[in-house]
Amino acid sequence: YPTWKRTLARRARESQMKRFCRAQAIQRRLEEIEVTFRELEQQGTKLEKLLRDENESPADQQTQWTNQLLYLVQKKNNLMTEESDLMIAVQELKLEEQQCQLDEKLRSYMNKEDALKTPEDEKAEQEILKQLVEVVNKRNVLIQLQEEKRLSEL
To answer: Ranges for the BMERB domain (predicted)?
Structure first.
């Protein structure tokens, strides 16, 4: 087993582990966001009830409750934006994984000598190359989407 093949295999395992760790971190954060959403909903519901039921309370108290409610809405919007970014990151990770798998398959076909390739091998190689281009284009679309989103937020 040549050294370069071992190196490629090791690098593939390392990048797979990095993707796995990132996916776990994203999943944890999505779960945290879900819990925070529920907490914000509960707080918002309480504040709305206070605002509706306590018509006789002082105006400054109602203003304070309204400000708190607006703060909760802003916080929820920020969390929704973060959740959206994380979902894009999940899609990007899936495409990265798909690209690595296709790279590996393509490399196995390309390492085969041309004289030993069957017409089926050549057809499979072309199909994998086509799929690889599609995955790269999808990743490019995601990156453009993120960039547009970032620019619109500025």
So the answer is: 13-154
